[in-house]
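Quick start: load a record and inspect it. Here is Large-conductance mechanosensitive channel:
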Amino acid sequence: MKTFLKEFKEFAMQGNVMDMAVGIIIGGAFTAIVNSLVNDILNPLLGLVVGKDFSRLTADIGDVHFAYGNFIMAVINFILIALVLFCIIRALNKLGSLRKAPEEEAAPATRICPYCKSEIPADATRCPHCTSELGAETA
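Running the structure step on this input writes:
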């Protein structure tokens, strides 16, 4: 039992498990924010534009009550949530690309000898394979 608890502790305290837990918690909080934006701001604006509250649309066929307006609202919510997430992720990607400095290409560490075609260090003045002298023009 002691070994089991020790293994569990090692598993639970691994970096990737803790990162995942933090991600899930932040994801839950972020979900509440996005849902509130869609349900409390965007849906009422959509209702003003269209002039109708889709969630109240229903149909009765015999004894069966169809609340098809709720389905329409679920589809609209999905589209709006996807749009909001797209805009947020796009903005974050742009912010991330602004912070990164463009990477300079490193000078190659090796070059090819023009005489024997062997790979040699870039700063070599003589080829170790064919012993040819390499001037500045071959660099």
